[in-house]
Every structure is written in C-alpha cells, then in structure tokens.
Amino acid sequence: MALLRAAVSELRRRGRGALTPLPALSSLLSSLSPRSPASTRPEPNNPHADRRHVIALRRCPPLPASAVLAPELLHARGLLPRHWSHASPLSTSSSSSRPADKAQLTWVDKWIPEAARPYAMLARLDKPIGTWLLAWPCMWSITIAAMPGDLPDLKMLALFGCGAVLLRGAGCTVNDLLDRDIDNKVERTRSRPFASGVLTPLQGVGFLGIQLLLGLGILLQLNNYSRILGASSLVLVFSYPLMKRFTFWPQAYLGLTFNWGALLGWAAIKESIDPAIILPLYTAGICWTLVYDTIYAHQDKEDDLKVGVKSTALRFGDLTKYWISGFGAACVGSLALSGWPYYPFIAAAAAQLAWQVSTVDLSSRSDCNKKFVSNKWFGALVFSGILFGRLVS
User: Looking at the UniProt record for this protein, which Gene Ontology cellular component terms does it annotate, in alphabetical order (predicted)?
Assistant: First the structure.
C-alpha cells in the first residue's frame, strides 16, 4: 500500500493537478488501507522517500513470457483443479500469450472428460503418429493378401486399425510403467502421467488390463492361427521397454515389435505365412523402423547419456546419416523383393525417405520430431502402391 501511495504522489507531482482521478484514487486507497503505524508512513522530513519507492517499482523486471503457465492449459491437461481461480499469480492478462496457449491444446484437451484425460495421454491418443506407424505394416500385408483385382478386406482393415490403437496404447502404458523413474529425468517425458504423479502405478496397471481385454476381443475375431501369432507379440510388447537398458539397439527390437502386423495381417486372410512374400515385407518394416526411430532418438540423446540408457542415436553418433541411409536402402530393396508391381510408388516412397535422411538436422529436437512424424506419408505411399498393384493385376 505504501508503494501505491508513493506512485500516486509521483503522478500528482508530474501532472500538477491535471489528473483529476487522483484525489478519488487517494481517498480509495485511504479507505482500503488499515491504520498504519508511524514507522510505515513516509518520513516527513525526507521528500525523496516516495521517489525511492517509485524508482524501485520501475526497476522490477517483468516476468518473462516463457515463465508464465496459463491456468487454462493446466485445467485442460487435468493438472489443475477446476475450482482454482484463473486469477492466479501464474496467469497473465496479456492477450499476446493466448494464441500460444491455444496452439498447445489437442483434441484430447478439448473433447475428453477431465477425469479420463490422463489415461488418454497415457495411451498417447493426442499423438496418433505411433498408431499410424503400427497400423501401416498391417494394412500393407492385408492388401497384399487380397485377391487380384479386388479391394482388401475392409472388415480386417477396420479390426486391425482398432487393434493398432489398443496395442500401441498398451505398449505406451507398459513403457511408462517401467520407465517412470527415467521419464522424470528426461525433459521431453517428465510431464507424462506417471512421471508427473498424475496417475499412480496401480491405476496404470488397471488401465493396462482394460486395454488388453479390449485387444483380446479383437483378436478373438480372427482365425486360430492368427490368434496364436497375435498373442505371441505380447512378449515383444512387454519386453521392449527394457531393451534400452541392455543394448544400443532398442530400435531394432522396436522394429520386430511394431512390424509384427506384417505377419499377422497376411495370416488373418490366408491362415498361413508365405515366407517369400511376408518375410521381405517384415524386413522392410524393421529397416524402416530403424530409420525413423533413430531420428526420433536423437531428441533425447543428451538426457539418455545422463540417465545411462542406450539407443542407436548414441551408437551411431556422427555417422548416423550413413547408417540410416543404409537401412533406408535395405527397406526399399526389401519392398521390391516382395514381388508386387507397384514400383513407381516404391520410387516415391524412396524419395520421401531420402528427403528425411538428407535434410534432418540431428541437433534440432523440433526437426527430428518433424521428420519422424512425416513417416506416416511413407507408409501411405507404400500402401497406395500395393493397393494400386492389386487392383490392376
């Protein structure tokens, strides 16, 4: 209150009475302020006392925009109770910060109920790229298995699409449960539900049970051969998060896991496996995963070194582009070996992969993420080529 009085005094001195609202403001301050002891009032014999307060006010630096947390964003993420007022010391009335806050909100923040939002974040429903990367090998395989001249089985495409959402979510839940003590030490992952304390491990185990139960419902709609093959993939799903602790090649293990659908999709249609067609397709998917997940791993390489976990990004180091170029070439070659006439589309997919490798800035987290997300288009190009090849053959 003393500071406000000093500010009023300074404004009155400068305005020479021109500012008419000042008397009313002074009376309002007097009515609101408690009776202050004499020691808190300005020194009567020191005309510069008020000025010192004004100068101190001027020297207070403004709060940087990067340090401001919008309550709206915290509410949306389920990290701040609804009954907390928006008039928080962490909030800002500046309209310039609002577009940035809104840009960070996803469809999960806008449409999922608040109580369910942490579980949606746990399943990465706000980041669908992982679902696309898991689904594309399934779609490739189902389409290759279609009869020449026919469309692929639409029911199977829908079932495997739903299965990709559930299995990817279950894999993320397992990963976050096992890595919760690591995630809170890594900048990119410390806001995840377990690392931040929004969810407890017991809640995560319950949610995992629901995901697996729904996945079982989809698996039971397939033939017996596919049920056994699909259930065996859970060994890979549950063990993958541990690989970064033991080997510099967890991305290769992820390739085995994420491309299991290349085996399963064919089996769901044919009730068997044709090694001459499916093994090259599976190999192509593994090499593709080594490309995109190595790029992805470069986002965390500094944190991984501190925490002590391993990745191909650390294994390859400055030679990363040479390594992933080789894996990209192996991916394209394996696709060609699968034996279907979609070579113009393979060339387009190869060009997309070459663009990723040649232009990625491995020292930029944002650019690594941009190139990683672009792989949904690589998968779409391969799928389009296979579909075209089946329709014209």
Answer: mitochondrial inner membrane
- Which residue type, as a one-letter code, is found at position 338? S
pTM of the model: 0.73
DSSP assignments along 27-58, one per residue: HHHHHHS----GGGSPPTT-TTHHHHHHHHHH
Question: Measured between alpha carbons, how far is 226 from 282 in angstroms, rounded to an integer?
Answer: 16
pLDDT of 150 over the 80 cut: yes
Range of the domain at 302: 108-392
Torsions phi, psi of 324, nearest 5? -70, -25
* Closest among 106, 116, 128, 110 to 210, alpha carbons compared: 116
What end-to-end distance do the CA atoms of the chain give, in Å?
84
pLDDT digits (tens, 9 = 90+) for 338-382: 866 677 898 999 999 999 999 999 999 999 999 999 999 999 999
> Looking at the 3D structure of the chain, how many domains does it have?
1
**Distance separating alpha carbons of residues 354 and 331, to the nearest angstrom:** 12
Burial of 275 (0-12, 13-18, 19+ CB in 10 A): exposed
